[in-house]
Design a protein that fits this description.
It is built from 13 helices and no strands. The chain is mainly alpha-helical.
Length: 259
């Protein structure tokens, strides 16, 4: 059992003193979380620190908030309490990871869904342009991907590197993850920004069995693929029409020659 921090005086304290004490308890919270997964980190002490008003806005030397560290070490119950205490859902550490990106890294779908409901952005990326979806895909967190896609996230989301979750999983040789993504609605022939399909990405990485497994799903997904193609064509036409309308308006606003 970790040693309990000294009790705080509860009388004759100014607002500044209370803020300082909350920050002190917040640092103790971070230190205890940083010990790792239970039982290294004492869950009862963590809950007690939060109950005593520990700040959830302090960060460690890596710029990680208490919420991020709790997610990293799989303290889901404590992470829920930290979130309820007002922790920022958009905070970024020194590597630009948000709490949601950390959820993708660890595969914590329960906290991820709570973050999404609170307004977290699924397309936020870290400093190497990894989103929560591509983090989860690269690490094989099938349940996480199924949960957040089922919540409404785009199964074919393209991150800042130009990769889809399916292409990312294919590059990592994650066969079960590829199949889980396709079952959740990912397009098995959707290319990345380099123009490579998931199967091509897998073959390039020498994961032949993964490429074969992806290609076997194409016939079953043909209607979905066709609908995606139609949607892309329609979106392109709408964009062209919008551009032409803007150009026509600009021409009409030009003054006549000689005026």
């Amino acid at each position: 059992m970790s040693q309990q921090p000294a009790p705080s005086p509860a009388f004759n304290t100014s607002a500044a003193d209370r803020r300082a004490e909350s920050a002190r308890l917040g640092q103790l919270l971070l230190e205890e979380l940083g010990k790792g997964r239970a039982p290294q980190a004492d869950a009862a002490l963590l809950a007690d620190l939060l109950a005593r008003g520990a700040s959830v806005h302090e960060v460690n030397t890596h710029g990680q908030s208490a919420l991020m560290v709790a997610i990293h070490y799989e303290h889901t119950d404590i992470a829920e309490k930290i979130l309820a205490a007002g922790a920022s859902i958009h905070a970024r550490d020194h590597q630009d990871n948000t709490p949601l990106v950390w959820c993708g890294y660890t595969g914590n779908e329960k906290i991820a869904l709570a973050l999404l409901r609170a307004g977290a952005r699924i397309d936020d990326c870290n400093s190497i342009s990894r989103s929560a979806l591509t983090q989860a895909a690269s690490r094989g967190h099938d349940a996480f991907l199924t949960a957040v896609i089922g919540w409404g996230c785009d199964a074919d989301h393209i991150d800042k590197r130009g990769e889809t979750p399916l292409c990312t999983a294919a590059a990592a040789g994650r066969k079960s993850t590829c199949l889980a993504l396709i079952a959740a609605g990912a397009n098995p022939v959707k290319p990345n920004r380099s123009g490579k399909t998931p199967a091509a990405v897998a073959r390039e990485a020498r994961y032949t069995t993964v490429a074969d497994a992806i290609e076997k799903t194409i016939e079953d997904c043909r209607e979905r693929i066709l609908n995606d193609d139609i949607r892309q064509i329609t979106d392109g036409l709408h964009e062209d029409i919008a551009i032409k309308r803007v150009n026509i308006k600009a021409v009409r606003k030009r003054p006549a020659p000689g005026k």
